[in-house]
Design brief:
The structure is a homotetramer. In chain A, 48% of the residues lie in helices and 14% in strands. Chain A contains 17 helices and 14 strands. In chain A, strand 6 and strand 7 (183-194) form a beta hairpin. In chain A, helix 9 (289-318) runs parallel beside helix 11 and helix 11 (364-389) packs across helix 14. Chains in contact: A-B, A-C, A-D, B-C, B-D, C-D. Chains A, B, C, D: GO terms for molecular function: 4-hydroxyphenylacetate 3-monooxygenase activity. Chains A, B, C, D: It is an enzyme of class 1 (oxidoreductase). Chains A, B, C, D: It comes from Bacillus salipaludis.
């Protein structure tokens, strides 16, 4: 079958009838018509349409060797640097369509599934409770049916002390509480599945940590409508449907949900591994997950940064402040961030190397460096937008105001340099929705924590850096008499 | 008559029937019942009640020498340092009641009116088109009737180039377009009257600038329901009425409005001055406006910072992260900011001095220094809250969710260290509403720009600093042979 | 006897013949004529002269109740806030004389001795191995003879891991290795006695730490020429004697030394306590040491900051760059730092309170806040000087060059706005000596670490802050239904 | 002839007998034996030897098409990306030999001369007073004789106001004051020729500026011993000859000098252009000068950053502080800076393109971005070294101290984890010499201003950035109804 289009995606999601709770009520009826999901589902559908669009199809798909059907390129397993660069161009097309604002665009999760499959052999070597064949099977199914996914791996934030052990009687963090002939039984919760409930499948695993409980050492994927699986949503950040008033949240609000496992049975053929701490840790560190996933994420973040840069410059032109040195410095700060990210991404591709299973992985070091940079610069860029916008970020009359009797006043008093008041207000509402609305600030928090705790990222970069050569040089210099 | 209570305030506002536009519709009926205003009017009413409360009345009022009635202490004209300290304690009581979150609490504007009156003599000396007696008369009326005010002085942000001159045919920035026997006629707009429409009066003037048009060189105060005066509101940032879901915006969202003057007649007895650029500039720089207003503002900002510090620490305790050095550093950063602000405020009082009209002004330099600090630290403190809260800032189920069938799941999975899930979620919703909701980010922008463009604030601090003594010391040192 | 003058100080130091090593050689002959010490000893002598100067004597001394002799005011034990303010004015006079550049001016150590004496009762309550009477005796002697002191308390930086225990056979960090009838015997080293060797006495103790060895839990003071006591100096940072070329190091280079205890016998009447970990910890935390010492240090740092501000402004005027916004911002940054320090110091005095022994201590919190600020702003201010100076910080011909045949070229090509080349170069050499010479960078490191590890300072501020009230307010707000 | 070796270089420089003034005295005799120049000349000689070393000769030279002699590769005119990468490897070899600490290594100036020659056609098109053939001739001579160069282009820092015009009667900034049959006559000064006097030639031109005087619109190159040419040195920053005590300044102190033109006659065949403001501006902006020079500079700065990283890590290991999160963060900051610079440099090569004369230029944008980054991170990295070193940066006994009677004490008390005291002190002296000695701080200022005023760099990056595409995307988004 291969790639689907937007309609197929919507139909599939609407038919799943997964258990999704919003504001204390379980959603019944078409998910794609629910105000909290309508916009994002439409936008996601438009991405699926894009890969069917003759202008892009060649860049976004490849032909299945088995069936000859076109398959989404994000499922492709790269074997050359050229393959990596093709993948990146495909990421860019989808990212540009959504201006980098959809964190969980299909290519992200497809890439994750692809990386799991490509590294499944890491689980092979006679390891206990490991089923690499189930990863492969899922990957094949996903690519032939263009399945959509989310994943969930953060444990509830009860107590973040490093010396804390979960001692509650009833599970809080999701764990295996039983196993039987059909599979393993899961009870407990995971936090923050973005787009939870609006995908075909949920990939579930536990981020490795210091003292890992074997009951939490698992990974699997199940359909979103599996019995006992509940998605409890946060408050929606869709401002309202008007693109004028809420240009971003009306299109890109993805929703995050708490995922509750109420004695969920995971069939054996869906289990990748369980009760194996070593496998859990090892798989995360030796698989190509970080390489391929970060390759996609940075591509999206670069596109998003281009969007911010364009927005910043348009604000500057609209209120005519190009001449101020501090404005020039602020814009140059965004340029530096953008071009740095681009150079690091490109270096990761140029320094790519084969992994032990013959796949071409982008080099991790430049990617890691970028993941240390972006969580700091993204919030700063949002601040820069606010500092440029100044009082304009608060002077935000609505679409209806412009259409009403007082519209003429607004037209006169809110005009910009070479912009009508409508154009000007739309621009500032965009700046506001990106950086100051509930939607925008959630994006900031999302980018800040995408790769995990920033402090930990810095520690990891330090701990894994190959210092030997540089340190030797100093030692040699110190013992040299020249 | 003297001080009013909350009911009186609400009645008066409801009866004014000022022309206020929200989302394209003019408000009809009780303003105090409109969803966008209900919360803030209730909160403001509670402040008026507080000054009638026997526990606080002594600290919040003084007796009118003329009538013997209790008058709001914010109207008092300080003549001793002790008077200043009493005024500050009164500011604190109101600020604590609203946690520093109401920018335009009555004491702010009362203080502004008091400062205008105390400096009215600056306009006396035979200056053209100056009517200091009208300031005095307004001040007397305001204090005897406990009138509420807003002010508006920012010109529309059409073109911020320093070489730009307004050349539009129709006025954009509000100006005098005519004068007649009854008064002067104003046409054009002013930006961003906070609480515009929910006060008895609007004080209007123009912030001095480089190339000031005489038509803009005016100051006056008129009732909010003056004919031709329109308040066009931005989108409301009241999330909803639930204190659980939106603990701050449901209480403290003040609304900002564009103020349109549609050929508004300002009666002669309300005009302070007009068509006098020198007076406009001079009055702003030599009056006690900056001294007294900043004295109130910093007091409120200190209370707000205490609120942030308490919130930060409670978050830290709730997820048990006290042990991390970076957390300790972040909290210490807030402590340093808070204690610095307190020390500067106190110094401004201790260094207070008489002005030429016999009033005791707080010293400007420490106040100025604080106004250079706060616009930088407030946004940083909001960022610190977000960095402590991490994923908890996004895991935000609603009140109804807790009351529904899935409430039990939430209770189990969202509990904190020594907190129930309800308590924990309420806390994080508060952190979110303060720093990430549309209400919260508007507060950030408000504090950032309260005293004007931060770049300009730094320039002003430099330009007016008395360097001579320090520079002489260097010169002496350089020419010393010792 | 009471206060001494400069000559007396020099004579005393010259006669001590303490064991001081510079560049591998033990100093023989007059210390006051050694190139590494000449400048600082002269400068220190000028401070002693200042307290005999009729213009300042009243502000710098008080009369001994016992002898009627004038005593240095730094020895006075404050009992009122007014006493504190008098002490501060005295600190200022000395600090201004040296522009805040002498870290160990006599008032610093006199204040330390005074604080030890004022708190000696903390050791009274029947504690083992504690001799508070020896502290009192030393204090009496010091004030009657105007003794000069240094102190040393940092342990060698062998291994800074928090899990490290000194396991070397031979002592590295100084410890008690024996005791006998005459006293205790010390072997090992302490780091970084500033002015080590050029004072009458050395005060020795151990900064409290996590796992304190009882052998290190001591405090005492001994004459610098005690047998077995050696001061091993670092390289001198005196550039040369020319005030033109090296205006600061030729006057203020204080020297730091490693203090070696080679089986030094400390007589019983000089021991304050030993072999008592509890006393060591307790005395440091409950004595008034931090209060009074920090009060002096901040006063000096404020004077130093005034010097920096004057220097920065004079550079700005000399190359005529006042008009640049980024220059204005940089200067305003120094102003903000200076005024903040002043406000905090003043608040510490205004909030002073009696300790349990009846002495008036400045409030610790504002002092602590300032000690968290200064180590960050001082290096930044040095950077600002460099950023203003730009190429001028490198274009530094010498005094002799001006006096030579090519002097005329220099006069023509290095002139400034309203400055001759000589004046201009002297100014830039001053800026260089303050921020870029070995003398200057050592000052930076000195201010950065004066109060200890900056990370630890932040942790301490956090750990001892009284959060309860602020946290309660949040809890109350969250449970309020209003 | 082609490449020279170290001996040849020294002989040539010693024989020139250029007019160099140090501390008021003109140098007579062998320059290579003068204490201020001995170290740097030896080091430079070792670089020339390196290109004759069989291990490196292939990487560092190419064969002259005319003579078949080996020519320094820095003179090669790149025509492919591969050529650029070869050039970069050659830069690295020399930079590694000096740890990036020699700013004016021969390859830098050779590259400048090469870029001038490659772009000389920019002056061809019938422009007045332009002599591109002289550039070519000089280039040919330089490469065949391996000439060494410095350049000088900064005007004296008399008055940096943007509205200042040099109105002095006698020239201050060097200008053409006459022309005659032999050539043009120059009078006045230029600032800061690094290595001025120890090169065969001096390249002189004027950095383009807003209001350029035609008399200053020139470029030429002349031998360092040209009549009337004087180099007036700043104070030397060679600490002393001991590599132990001053490991860096004893080897790498380059000296900066003021260059005085005392009616210097520049022969016509050495003039590139004069009295042509348009040519002066145009040549700087359209030639490949910035491209090729920055390509070399960044390569050196990357090598220097590797040196800093190695040093930082070795300090960390020596005092055993790897476990601290703030240390890990500081080291990761250096890693991020280093890897970012590497990625940008590589991108500039991969994005290289032909210029209009057929040479392959590295892409300017990534280079520009790096030049905006390095002046900020280099000083920060020096600060990090100081923050890691803490008290160890001041505890610096000398080589002689170790060799003396008290050497045993030092050995005991200054040992490190797995380091003897000698090793440990040598390491800290290195850290000190790099970041805190007069040599080190001059390096900081040098890197900070290498590419000019950092504020201006940011403005330039902004002003030349191609925003159109990004801005259009925003406009399209705003007008989209999807």
């Amino acid at each position: 079958m291969g790639i689907i289009n937007g309609k197929k995606f919507i139909d599939r999601i609407d038919q799943m009838n997964s258990e999704i709770w919003v504001d204390g009520e379980r959603i019944v009826g078409m998910l794609s018509e629910h105000p909290a999901f309508k916009g994002i589902i439409q936008t996601k559908a438009s991405l699926y349409n894009l890969q069917n669009n003759p202008c892009h199809k060649d860049q976004m798909t490849y032909l299945s060797p088995e069936t000859g059907d076109p398959i989404g390129l994000s499922y492709s397993q790269p074997k050359t640097i050229e393959d990596l660069k093709r993948r990146r161009k495909m990421f860019e097309i989808w990212a540009r369509h959504t201006h980098g604002l959809m964190g969980r665009s299909p290519d992200y999760m497809n890439t994750v599934i692809m990386s799991f499959a490509s590294s499944s052999a890491a689980l092979l070597k006679g390891k206990e409770n490991c089923f690499p064949e189930n990863i492969i099977a899922l990957y094949e199914k996903a690519k032939e049916h263009d399945l959509s996914f989310t994943h969930t791996f953060i444990t509830p934030q009860i107590n973040r002390s490093q010396y804390n052990f979960d001692s509650s009687k009833e599970p809080i963090s999701a764990k295996v509480i039983d196993k039987n002939e059909q599979g393993i039984v899961i009870k407990g919760a995971r936090l923050l599945a973005t787009q939870g409930g609006i995908t075909d499948e949920v990939l579930v695993y536990t981020a490795p940590k210091k003292f890992m409980d074997p009951d939490e050492a698992f990974a699997f994927s199940i359909p979103s409508n599996t019995k006992g699986l509940k998605f409890i949503c946060r408050e929606t950040f869709v401002g309202e449907e008007s693109h004028f008033n809420h240009p971003l949240s009306s299109r890109y609000e993805e929703m995050d949900s708490i995922v509750v496992f109420d004695n969920v049975l995971v069939p054996w053929d869906r289990v990748f591994f369980y009760d194996n701490v070593e496998a859990a840790v090892d798989f995360m560190f030796h698989s190509s997950f970080h390489h391929f996933a970060t390759h996609q994420v940075l591509t999206r973040q670069i596109v998003k940064t281009e969007f911010i840069l364009g927005l910043a410059e348009l604000l500057v032109e609209t209120i005519n402040v190009q001449e101020y040195q501090h404005i020039q410095e602020k814009l140059s700060e965004i340029i530096v961030g953008l071009e740095t990210m681009k150079a690091l991404l490109e270096k990761s591709e140029n320094d790519a190397a084969f992994d032990e299973w013959g796949y071409m992985r982008p080099s991790l070091l430049p990617l890691q460096v970028a993941t240390n940079i972006y969580p700091k610069i993204y919030p700063r860029f949002c601040e820069i937008i606010q500092l440029i916008g100044a009082s304009g970020m608060v002077t935000l009359p609505s679409e209806k105001a412009f259409e009403s009797e007082i519209g003429a006043d607004l037209e006169q008093y809110l005009q910009g340099v070479n912009k009508t008041a409508v154009e000007r207000v739309k621009l500032f509402r965009l700046a506001w929705d990106l950086t100051m609305s509930s939607f925008g600030t959630r994006q900031t928090q999302y980018e800040r924590y995408f790769f995990g705790d920033p402090i930990q990222l810095a520690s990891n970069l330090y701990k894994h850096y190959p210092f030997a050569e540089q340190v030797n040089k100093i030692n040699n210099f110190l013992s040299s008499s020249e």
